[in-house]
Design a protein that fits this description.
about 240 residues, two-stranded antiparallel ribbon, 10 strands, about 35% helix
């Protein structure tokens, strides 16, 4: 992917080759500004690559459609709608019918987050973490083939971030949605993902792909295991300036 500039094209991504399997959670990590969001936007069909292609279920991606729903870094919950109305908006995004809020991944997320009793409240009455969970619930309710999350825990403090990602982890473990997420937090990526993709360089390319073999269900305490610490250190060293694979 090159971006046009006044003094010529700016290469952002180069030789990025990646496949994602059904039911897999892939987390792309890399420094801020490296091109993670650009990669997600290309998968979503919001940007067209300068060269190359994206296919979902064998079909070329040329524009956004309901098979790929993206949760953005910036807050996108609608403040004039209740929690229930926000989630049911998914039927306009792609769900074949009005989403079921009583069961499935959306129902479980609502229960785990304590949002079941807040369905008729407006987002302004919710905490930042709860609003982020409403966005994730709306994305899941659209029943996409792939849910894309651009730093889905962006701007949350460390304790809220941990709580929200553990709720998402339970949903992942019970329902196996196909997801591609971005993060600059290696611990978070290892906690959630089935594979971790390291994006580095200028232009950015895939330096390493690590299978994450820690068994599910996962506990926050895996972060204290020797294997987790070793893999985290290896990846963080490869991300450091001058790091090597």
């Amino acid at each position: 992917m090159d971006f046009p500039m006044s003094n010529g094209p700016l290469p952002v991504l180069s030789n990025v080759n990646l496949s994602v399997q059904k039911g897999e959670v892939v987390v792309v990590v890399g420094p801020s500004g490296i091109g993670k969001t650009t990669l997600l936007r290309i998968i979503a069909g919001l940007l067209s690559p300068t060269n190359g292609f994206v296919r979902v279920l064998g079909k070329p991606v040329h524009e956004p459609d309901s098979s790929r729903v993206m949760v953005f870094q910036e807050p996108s919950v609608f403040p004039w709608m209740t929690v229930r109305e926000n989630i049911k908006y998914a039927s306009r995004i792609g769900a074949a019918s009005s989403p079921d809020l009583s069961s499935g991944p959306v129902g479980e997320l609502l229960d785990l987050a304590g949002l079941r009793t807040r369905l008729d409240d407006f987002p302004g009455t919710l905490s930042t973490g709860m609003r982020r969970l409403v966005e994730l619930a709306r994305g899941l309710a659209a029943q996409p083939k792939i849910l894309l999350g651009d730093e889905p825990f962006y701007a949350l403090d460390v304790y809220v971030r941990r709580s929200v990602r553990e709720i998402l982890l339970r949903v992942i473990e019970h329902y196996s949605p196909t997801m591609v997420l971005t993060s600059h937090d290696v611990e978070e990526a290892l906690f959630l993902g089935d594979r971790l993709v390291v994006l580095c360089g200028r232009p950015a390319t895939i330096r390493e792909i690590h299978p994450v073999l820690f068994p599910r269900p996962r506990s926050r305490y895996i972060a204290y295991s020797g294997d987790f610490i070793k893999l985290r250190r290896q990846i963080e060293e490869s991300l450091a300036p001058g790091g090597t694979a």
